[in-house]
Every structure is written in structure tokens, then in C-alpha cells.
Amino acid sequence: MFLFSGNGDTNYGLHRIYVYSDKDCVNLVYKGAIVGGPAYAPRTNGPLALPPDTTALVAAANEFLGNGDEGKTFADDTTVIKTTEATQAADSGSSSSDQASVGNHKVDLWDRSGPSGRYYWTVVPVQAVIIPSDTGGDIPINSDGSFVNDDPSQIDGSIEYHDTVLPQDACHQGHVLEFGKQSVNPKPVDTRSVPYATGLAPTGRLLSAAARETQFYGPPLVSWDAAPAAVAYDVEWSRTSYPWHRAGRLTTHSTSAVLPLAPGRWWYRVRGIDDALPGSQAMSWSSPVPIRIAAPKFAVVGG
Questions:
Q1: Lesser CB count within 10 Å: N end or C end of the chain?
Q2: Which residues pair with 147 in a beta bridge?
Q3: Positions of the chain with pLDDT under 70
């Protein structure tokens, strides 16, 4: 959540936040939705449906806004703005998210190993402007939401929403703060590096791993501590930990999986899938975990 204060050129208390990956506010990574208060929290179900005309604007004073389109929104230099919040995860086509849940809006940011890696954010005022249907000019709205010399219910026109300051100018004026982001990866081992794994012992007993490299007979069930924000998990296994050569892979919405491993020594790793991330939705891999699968033994008995 972002909190801010100020009395810039706005009406209805409208603001929008911008997030950058550099302190000069050049590389834009996130455009917030317009909010009517001194705080912004990304909404996973998209932005609010802002009033598109004067009739809806008058009605909005006595009702809660639903989800929908922000309408016509512009930067201070007249560039059209579409909030990041309006983009859905299904648009990315990320291979890792194909089996994860879709429809969630992209309101998360990538891990930057904070506090060493940082994001920089600023906020700008937004003003609602009427574009009359019967005249060539716009009609400003006062800071208290009233129209100049007119009853808003008698004006027929559409509403546009304009930033009144460029975010780069706000940054250069010192109106910028920074924050870091450090994700928590799925954890497949305990504090002693013993894997969360259960299966049959070569003796036929059902057991849970008690050592770093426990031996099982047949496919083991492995599990892991959940990663915040993950809606699904990728699990991979390899014959070597380095270099990693993927021998198999599965995706699950659970925090456990049965690994279809052949006899021998294996390594497996887990990563979360965050479908609220723009672009690649895969999180970082856990450290590889060793595990052994015993070969079957046979004995010849006399008849």
C-alpha cells in the first residue's frame, strides 16, 4: 500500500502513483489506477469504473464504484494512460503460467533482492475535466467537485481524467520515495537441510526423511513451505545439481508432489508461480535437494 499527502491541482482528491526501477524515474514499471483518496493499494480484480459522463458523475456521489474501465485518462503531456492494474495475467502467455490460475490482474512487482535492489515511486494529482457535447472547449471542475457557473446535472458531456504533473517532474522536485522487495521462495527442507519427503524405505517401511539424503524405494512424496503470492509451483528434477540438466518437470497448485523418479541419485528443486507478475510469472528456484531411489532387489528361493 502507498500512502501520500498533498494539495496539488486536483478535484475530488484524485491521484495516481507511478513506480520506476531507477531513481531518475525513467524506466517505468508500474502505473497505478486513479484513486480518490490519500492511499493506493493494487486491486487484483482491476481498476474502478470511473464516471464516463456528467450523468454518471452526479450519480457517483451516492454510490460505490464497481469494477471496470477508467475511461479516457491522460498524462500531463496528453499521452494516453492505461493503468497496469487493467492488464490481466492471461495476456502474458508465460509458459510457466499456462497451468496456473488465470484472470488475475498484474499488480505485483518482481523480486529485486531488497534492500540492495530498490524501486522508486511518486504520486501526481489527477483532475477530472468535462468535454461538452455542444461546445468546442472543456469545462473545468472546481477543487470541491463543483462546476464553474453551472449545475452539473444540466451539462451534457463526457469526462476525461488528466494528470496535472509529469511524474518525472515530480521525481526531480524531490517528491519520490524508495522501497525494496524481497520474495520468500518455497522451502523444501527444514533448518537441518533435511527434505520434507515421505515414502517407502528399501525395507518396506513407510518413513519420512531423517537425513539430508534419505533413500526411498519407489516414487517419494515431497513437499515444501508455501511461498507468499504463489498460486502454483513448478517442480523439476535432474541427475546433477550443477550443471542442471532437467530430466522431468511438473506443475501443481498444491505444496506437495509425487516425483516419478527411477533408481539412482537425483536432485529436485521448486519455484513458485505468481500470476500477478507482469511478463515472466516465475519466481526464484529453491536450492537443489538431493534424494536417492533404491533399485529393486530380488531373491531366488527354492521350491
A1: C
A2: 141
A3: 89-103, 134-154, 299, 303
What the block records as the C-alpha cell of 247 is 530430466
Long-range CB pairs of 285-289 (<8 Å, 24+ gap) are 285/185, 285/236, 286/185, 286/186, 286/187, 286/188, 286/224, 287/189, 288/238, 288/241, 288/242, 288/244, 289/188, 289/189, 289/195, 289/222
Q: Give span(s): CATH 2.60.40.10, the chain.
A: 197-293
Q: Which fold has domain 197-293?
A: Immunoglobulin-like (2.60.40)
The answer to whether 30 and 84 are in contact (CB under 8 A) is yes
Q: What angle do CA 254, 197, 211 make, to 5 degrees?
A: 150
- In eight-state DSSP terms, residue 84 is G
The alpha-helical segments, DSSP class H, found in the chain are: 54-60, 167-172
> pLDDT tens, 263-289?
999 999 999 999 888 778 888 899 999
* 118-132 vs 139-140, strand pairing mode: antiparallel
Cα 138 to chain center, whole Å? 37
pTM, rounded to two decimals: 0.73
Residue tagged 539412482 (cell numbers): 264
